[in-house]
Amino acid sequence: MTSLTQKIHFAPAFPIPDYLVGEVQSKLAYVDENIRAAQVSPNGDDIQLTFGNAIDEEEKKLIESKVQRVVTSLVKGAFKPKVQILEDYLDRPLPYREDPMAELLRRGELSEEASGVYALGPLLTRLINWFESRFVALADSFSAQPYRFPTLIPARYMERVGYFRAFPHSLSFATHLHSELDNIDQFAQHAACDEQGNLNVPMERFAQFKALLSPAVCYHLYFALADKPLPNGRVTATAVGNCFRYESSNLTSLERLWNFTMREVIFVGPKEFVLENREIARQRMQKVFAEIGLAYRVESANDPFFIGEFRKQVAFQSAFQLKYEIRARLPFKDSTLAVGSYNYHQDFFGRHLNITLPDGSPTHTGCVAFGLERIAFAFLAQFGFDTAKWPKVIKESI
Amino acid sequence: MTNLTAPNTLDERIREALALALQVSPDTIITELSFGDIPQWDSMGHMEVMMRLEEFFGIEINTDTISTLTSVAAIRAYLENSH
Lengths: 398, 83
Hints:
- The structure holds 2 protein chains of 2 kinds.
- Chain A contains 13 helices and 18 strands.
- Chain A is α+β, with helices and mostly antiparallel strands.
- The model of chain B has no long low-confidence stretch (mean pLDDT 89).
- Chain B contains 4 helices and no strands.
- Chain B has one domain (9-82): ACP-like (Non-ribosomal Peptide Synthetase Peptidyl Carrier Protein, Chain A, Orthogonal Bundle).
C-alpha cells in the first residue's frame, strides 16, 4: 500500500520568536484534520506542514490563510514571558538514554487502544502506584481531605468558568442516544465502525451535549463549593481522576495522552494560605525527587490556551507567576516533559463560582497536580528497565 | 471616592484608555479602582488595559511591570515616572 503524503512550506506572516515556536507548532495541529505533523523552524522563519493526503492549490491557499491566522493571533503584540527557574536538577547523572516506548510495547506493557489512549501493564502500574504513594503522602502532610470525582463534568459548569473560550480545542464531549425506542432499535441494528474506527451513525441519533469528559480534577471541588461561603474559611482536598484533553496530531506516546490520570492536592482559602501551601508543597516534593535522583527543573509556565485568549492569558500567567511546571528530563531527545505543576488561580474561581471567605470576599484557589502516566514514563526514560540501576527506594518497593 | 475629573490630561487619558479597555463608562474609572473591583477588570481585562496603555502612551510594558499596574493609582504613578 502506498501512503500519499504531501509537505508544504511557507514563511509565517510575522517572525515567530523562540519563546513561541513550540506554542505555534502545537496549535497548527488544529488548523486542518488532515495535518499529520507541523514543524516550525527553530529560528521561526519557516513553517512545514505534512498532510496524510494530497492537497490541491485551492486547499493549500485556504490552509495557509488559517495558519497565518494562528501565527498572527499568537505572535502579534505578544508579551515576552518572564522565565523563572525555581529548581534546576537537570544535570543529575542518569543511567539510561533510550526512548522507553519501543521496549514498553515489546514487553506488552502498553496497548494502544486509540490515538492517545493506552492500557498500561503491571510494571507501569506498579511505578504509578509508587509515585501515587508519594503524592498521597504529600496530601496527608497537609491533612488534605480525600474526594472522589466523576469522569463527566456538566457543560454548564465549564461555561461558567469560561473554559469554552479558553480551551475549545482540547474539549471531549459525552452524549448518549435519544431515549426513543425506534432510534435505539435502529442504532442497535446498523451501528458499525469503518476501517478508521469511526462509528458510522448520524449525529441526529444522539442527544444534545450536556456533559463533557473532565479536563481536570480540581474543577469538581470548586463546583462543589460554589455559591456558598467556604466552610471554616479554608479547604484542603486531594483526589485522583481521569482527565481528557484532545491534542489532535500532537498526541504522541505516553508524553501526550488524550486520556490520562492526575493526582491533585487542592488549596482553597485566603491568598496567603494558598500561596504558602503551594510553596510548602514544592519544597516537600523537592525532597521526594532528590530521594530518587530524578533529573528535572521547576520553571514558570503557562496553560495551553487556544489562539483567541492565548496572548493575553499567557502574559497574565507569566506576570503574576501563576504556574510553575515540574519538567523532567527526557535524555533520549534532549528535551523535558511536564510531569506536574504548582498552580495559583488567584480569586478566579472564587469570583466566577461565588465561593466566599468569611469576610464576603471571593476565595483564592491553587492546586498541585501530577500526571501519573507522564511521571512513570519520565522515570523509565531516565532509569530504564534494568532494576539494578533504579533508585534503591523504588527498587525495594516494587 | 475621587472621580478623575480634574482637567489633567494624564488623568483624562488614563480614564479614556481604561474605559475603552474594560468597555465600561469613563465614570467607572475612579482613582481607587483596582484589579478585581469590577467584573470587567479580570485577567483578560487586565491585559486589555496593558495593551491600551501601550497604544495610548507609546510605551512598552514588560512582563515584570504588568503585575504591578493593578490599580488606577499605580498606573498613574507609573506613567508619571515614565514620561
